[in-house]
Write a structure and sequence with these properties.
Radius of gyration: 44 Å
Helix content: 55-70%
Order of helices and strands: HHHHEEEEEE
Number of helices: 4
Strand order of the largest sheet: 1-4-5
CATH architecture of the largest domain: Roll
Structural class: alpha+beta
Shape: elongated
Distance between the termini: 134 Å
CATH class of the largest domain: Mainly Beta
Number of strands: 6
């Protein structure tokens, strides 16, 4: 080991003491090192917050999708028979026309009585499954339920009242399956 004179040794101690008393933020090169250490942490924290928010939004979107899918599936099941019933009401119309013609021939006929029973059974079955006929005669014209095919003057019915129904309308549960075709009064003849 080399001997250092006391005066030089005192100088070195003073320099090291003065260097240690300077705050690290003022030391040359320390600023860059400290900012590098803080910026990556701040950047990572910002990224973490952003990804957490994105994950929360994605989770909320997924929950909304699940609810919407369940609602659509439930609705599809609820209205699954709609197309079958649309075709069936056309057959019911023809059956009712045949029944009216049979009644004109002989209302006391056992065949007519049997057909009336079949019609009642069919109507009851359809009502159990959510099909309801729309009664239109004598009611106020409603464009949501009725399709006006003609306007006729009438002294018996006030204006905008359904006089006749030419084709029965039907509702399926809470939706309109087919509007009723009606003739609407245009009020007294002028």
């Amino acid at each position: 080991m080399k001997k250092i004179p006391a005066t030089e040794q005192n100088k070195q101690m003073k320099q090291s003491a003065s260097a240690s008393s300077i705050p690290s933020s003022f030391a040359p090169g320390a600023d860059a090192a400290q900012s590098e250490a803080e910026d990556p942490m701040a950047g990572l924290q910002t990224d973490l917050d952003r990804f957490r928010e994105l994950a929360a939004r994605s989770q909320a979107d997924f929950e909304n999708y699940k609810k919407r899918s369940a609602r659509e599936k439930e609705e599809a099941i609820k209205y699954a028979n709609k197309s079958l019933l649309e075709r069936l009401v056309g057959i019911i119309d023809n059956f009712e026309l045949g029944l009216a013609a049979a009644k004109e021939q002989s209302a006391d006929s056992p065949i007519y009585s049997g057909l009336v029973l079949v019609q009642k059974q069919l109507s009851d079955l359809l009502a159990e499954n959510g099909l309801q006929p729309i009664e239109a005669e004598g009611k106020t014209f409603d464009p949501n339920l009725h399709e006006a095919i003609a306007h006729e003057p009438s002294n018996e019915y006030p204006e905008e009242i359904v006089m006749r129904q030419t084709r029965r309308g039907y509702r399926f549960k809470d939706r309109l399956l087919r509007p009723a075709k009606v003739v609407v009064s245009s009020g007294p003849a002028k």
